[in-house]
Amino acid sequence: MATVYSQYAWLVPVFPLAAFLILTAFGRGLKQTGAIVAVLGSFGALALSALVLIEHLGGADEYNDSFHWIKIGGYALTAGFDVTNLTALMLVVVSLVAFLVNIYSMGYMKDDERMTVFFGYVALFTFSMLGLVLADNLLTLYIFWELVGVCSFLLIGFWYQKPEAKAAAKKAFIVTRIGDVGLLIALLLLFWYMPDHDLSFAAIENVFGQTGLITEGITTLIAILIFVGAVGKSGQFPLHVWLPDAMEGPTPISALIHAATMVAAGVFLVARTFPIFEASQAALDTVAWVGAFTAIFAASIAIAQNDIKRILAYSTVSQLGYMMMAIGLGSVTAGMFHLFTHAFFKALLFLGAGSVIHAVHTQDIHEMGGLGKTMKTTAWTFAIGALALAGIPPLSGFWSKDAILAEALHANPALFVVGIAAAFLTALYMSRLFFLVFAGNPKAGGEAHESPATMTVPLIVLAVLAVIAGFVEMPFSGTGWFGEWLTGHAAEHEGAALVMLVSTAIGLLGIYLGWLIYVKGAISRDVVTSRAPWLTRMLERKYYIDEIYHAVFTVSLRAIGRACDAFDRHVVGGAVRLAGGAAFWTGRAATRMQSGQPQSYGLYVVIGLVILVAAIAGRRFW
Amino acid sequence: MESSFPWLTLLTFSPIIGLLVLLFIPGTNSRALRTAAIVTTLVPLGLSLWLFASYDAANPNAFREQVDWITIALNHEAVNIGSSAYVFQYHLAVDGLSLPLVALAALVAVMAALASVHIKKRWKAFYVWFLLLETGMLGVFLARDLILFFLFFELTLIALFFLIGIWGSLNREKAANTFLIYNGLGSALMLIAFVLLISTAGASLNATEQGGDLVYSGDYATIAANLTSGESLTNLPGGYDNPFALSDGMRWTIFILLLAAFGIKLPVLPLHTWMLRVHAEAPPSVVMIHSGVLLKMGGYGLIRFGIGLFPELAEDASFVLALLGAVSVLYGAVLAFVQREFRLVLAYSSVSHMGIVLLGIASLNEIGLQGAVFQLVSHGLISALLFLIVGSLYERTGTTELEELGGLARPMPFMSGVLLAAGMASLGLPGLSGFIGEFLAFLGLFETMKWVTAIAAIGVILAAVYILRSVLKITFGPQQERYAVLKDARLIEAVPMIALFAFIVLLGVYPSVLTDTMQGSFDNIIAHLNTRMGG
Amino acid sequence: MLSSYLTMAAILFCIGLYGALSKRNAVIVLMSVELMLNAVNLNLVAFSKYGVLPSLTGQIFSLFTISVAAAEVAVGVAILIALFRARGVVNVDEFNEMRR
């Protein structure tokens, strides 16, 4: 079918870029107009990407266009864009969430004097994220990959006067940068191993699709290095530490960047370069196990946290682990499906949390309570998001999580057990969060009131999407068009009934347990704390990972730095001083020889003569 | 195809013309002096941009000026043909390697002239030395004769010595002294190497015009041809036997002398201490030129003379060079992380970034070499921008100690924003020029030395660590009372900041501007190495 | 024949050298210098008589040298007296004016 809009897909990121340039050029003079510019920019992107998606739902061909970006001798580095079903879907997800977050921010950031700066950053982020999605080769992707990282950094540190925000921003940038170096080295490896030095995804699919072109070892190495990049960006263990801290940024940002889009970029990257992983079982296993471990690890931490945004952050980490696990099990479909649904319900949860924070001005869930009465819209939409996350049918999260679990049951029962356990924990911490915030009696003195329409409308839109987004791929025969369309492989349907049953039961069990503890009080809240205080403390301190990293990396780097500094000062500098000193002291000694005593001068002359004669005579005899 | 009008001479000596005008302005009128200096520096900028635009990589000889300058006749009894003489030429030309650096020098000079608003005394003398320095830098990149190169090189040393010694901060005399000793040593080594080169590989038989005369010259092309062809040295045409044929040991000696001479300038690892002092003591506008252009003369010399004349030796030494580069990258980064003074952070970051240049050079392929030159230009722009900001900051706060700074984003949002952007460029953010140089250097080196590249890539993380630590310390954090009243950048400060940053973005987004110009500049080297490998 | 003259001259020279370098009294130093000079004269005469190309020039030159040496001694003693007038001593190790 003809590709009309796909040819102009490169224009999608241009809208937010234009918004960013306008906002930066005119700066604070714009005030409220700035917000409108940003909203228009993201709307332009949304409209065009919707057209592209519709075209592709109608069965349009893939479209690719690229040009030589740098040409050196016989080598060329290209830049270009690629419109496939996968990218078309991602374009819409990103621009839709960005658009909603922009609208939401008009209300949320209304009183901030640096509002235009905020919208400028958001626009720059939207541009970079859309560019990342469109990129047709790994180098272009890497460029945008770094740009989204820096936008994330800027927005985490948006309230730059807070020392915590500063520290969090720095941490986010540096930790993700560790992953980026992995990706960079993978890029270098690919460049020199690919035939014709072609880095495009199409070429990657071609080359790794056939065996023997690139050796097993190198394939595994490349795959693992790419995965390192994804681990950094998607907050997988052991590079997850930045993501919870990133909650220092404004809440709409947490929804946009640290829940729906950028953190999912790691999953997207692995999906995009999946042929490489597919060629190496070791790499797939690594991805699956890291994902599974992260899923349960982060979920267990989320149970013991008290900050509403941190709970959601650990939940994000956990869900990203699910996606990774799915891809590691060989099902890009399931992973991308979960990414798709997760984007909506997690953005919804964050925006709901923002609405709550906006009302009560605290983030500690123990200081909230009873908000369900005063903030009806927020409470209802939040409940939908929480249920979707907990995997209760028929909400979207259920279907996507179900696809992953079915895949796990089919491929690796051990991972299925891990997945089920994580699902239980998810349901438990979400019910704890929901009941503590919205049920019970008000603690903030009843002054909380519903947020303005700019904030609630996006909530409602996202809630609708969180309900329906899952229907695109249900494990009933004849309904699985989504997977087929997206990746050419439908999701796993074998044993679907069993999985559906088990996961629903587990989800309900988790919620029931939460209800018993936090609403009914049938089980004491400190039942664990009183019996095993070390366990609670360990979870609260997040397994002491931050402390360990601090001790191992920060301290040792500083020690190395000090040692090098001493080396530079005393050894390198000392050698220089020694050389200078030698010249100086030679001069001193020579000055001393000039005593003014003619007799000593005479003696020097005689000594010199003797040496000269000895040298000449010696030379003759040698 | 030589152009009739001596554009290159005009380009090189236009600062001197401006200097003559400057002499007629009273020394107390700082504003007029500064205006005259800025206008003067605009001339070479315009000329070099025009050159850049009209340069065609396929026809690199369009601009060339060549006349005999000094002729010293020799009475050589061993010569059994005609006569022999030393002939030194006034020979200027551009090629893909020097043109980006000429443009960089001219651009940074304008920006530094704009930034010289912070100079508080003896304006006339300052601008005189400043313009002499500019002529020196331009000449270094344009010269095509060893002796001419040497003269321009020395001119920059002398001018910079006075600029540091008179207008620097507290320990300026000591800094100027250290600078001169180190660089004087480097020049001495360079001179020895040059003399050896001229009197051996510089020989050519001028059969047509002077009737079979033997001429010793410092012409780059002659020397390169003689050194790389390997035949004409011992067996010149006409049956003449060159008495000064270069033995392998001699070649290594010259190569190492050149490495040391330009290694001091770059600066390569153990020879960097002088640069720290200069960075910390010289006035910011001078550091802009120093860090932005003068250090690049080291990289230029390494490529032009080290690699260009001795490709085989460079190949044999490439592992050592790469290792030195990788160590410089990491060592500079680690040290930058623990410094307490922002100018020293930047100084060590220069060490780190110049390590990347070394990595690109060590790769000895086209990608790596272009990466090295790209990194030179990009680092020139970035460090010029950073020191421009440092100068403005220092004028307002009176300190560059990291401990004492903080929260400046509130009183000075524009400058803090530019500082952050410059820091991002410095840590190699894609979309800005620093990334391209870094990436190309890594990419080139990766072909031959994978592990060294991988280790050096850790420097990318460390760069983020030290840049963010220092930049965020200055700009982020709670506002401090004493800095609440500070004013943001004035127009004369903002213009060069925006201009420099615009160039950084341009090179980062559309690097072909530079890479297309450099296209083919390293063909000789690459071709030679390939034939060597094949044979 | 020549060697005995040369040996004699060498002995004289060494005595003079020793005296010039080790004696404190300036008068004795001057006398030692004269001794070295005369050793040289002896060499000149010896070479002019027994050298490779014998010629009268050498002997005449030694006459010149003797007269020049006399003039030099006169100057030396004059300086010595001036110094003695100024400082009251003639010990060479107490003069280090040349240092300044």
Characterize this entry briefly.
The complex is a heterotrimer of chains A (622), B (535) and C (100). Chain B is built from 20 helices and 4 strands.
Identify the CATH architecture of chain C: Orthogonal Bundle
CATH topology of chain C: Helix Hairpins
The order of strands across the largest sheet of chain B is 1-2-4-3
Distance between the termini of chain C: 49 Å
Model description:
The complex is a heterotrimer of chains A (622), B (535) and C (100). Among the domains of chain A are: 280-539, no CATH class; 548-621. Chain A contains 26 helices and 2 strands. Chain A has helices at 14-26, 32-57, 85-108, 115-134, 138-156, 163-193, 201-209, 216-233, 242-245, 251-260, 265-272, 274-278, 281-304, 308-328, 332-360, 371-374, 376-390, 396-411, 413-438, 453-468, 481-487, 496-520, 527-531, 533-540, 545-593, 598-621; strands spanning 63-72, 75-83. The radius of gyration of chain A is 31 Å and the shape is globular. In chain A, strands 1-2 form a two-stranded antiparallel ribbon. Chain A has 622 residues and is mainly alpha-helical. The termini of chain A are far apart. In chain A, strand 1 and strand 2 (75-83) form a beta hairpin. Helix content of chain A is 73%, strand content 3%. Chain B is mostly helical. Chain B folds into 2 domains: 1-281, no CATH class; 317-528, no CATH class. Chain B is 69% helix and 6% strand. Chain B has 20 helices and 4 strands. Chain B has a 4-stranded mixed sheet with strand order 1-2-4-3, with helices on both faces. In chain B, helix 4 (123-142) runs parallel beside helix 10 (284-309) and helix 16 packs antiparallel against helix 17. The relative contact order of chain B is 0.10. With 100 residues, chain C is mainly alpha-helical. Chain C has a single domain, classed as Helix Hairpins, CATH 1.10.287.3510. Chain C is built from 3 helices and no strands. Chain C is elongated, with a radius of gyration of 16 Å. Chains in contact: A-B, A-C. Chains A and B meet through strand 1, helix 5, helix 6 and helix 25 of A and helix 12, helix 14, helix 16, helix 17 and helix 19 of B.
